[in-house]
């Protein structure tokens, strides 16, 4: 994997992924930014949520579950001192579908947490307390 981050001005940077996609990162106005882009630590949360959600949906589809939606709410707490690292991270999945098996949903979340999601496993190995929860919504 490869990425490039280029400084634009003030607190604004452009990040480009190896696959050619670009994202604007910026800081709040109080820190010299213009508040026109996502913060780098927010990107970490989104990355963790995306990585784990991809796993959960894929596992459920392979289990022949009729999944129609998956939203992950990712919340974190950060240390009060510098560096303000994540101390806790929770991924709460809202999985919708028709006749979803709770056993399959629970297993998909567990497999993502314990085996497949590189992002959350890396954070957990770095000392972040990562937790997962879910709810099933019948369509």
From TrEMBL:
One Pfam family matching this protein: OsmC
Protein name as it appears in the record: Osmotically inducible protein C
TM helices/strands, residue ranges: none
Origin: domain of life: Bacteria
InterPro entries hit by this protein: KH_dom-like_a/b, OsmC/Ohr_fam, OsmC/Ohrsf
Record Gene3D superfamilies: 2.20.25.10, 3.30.300.20
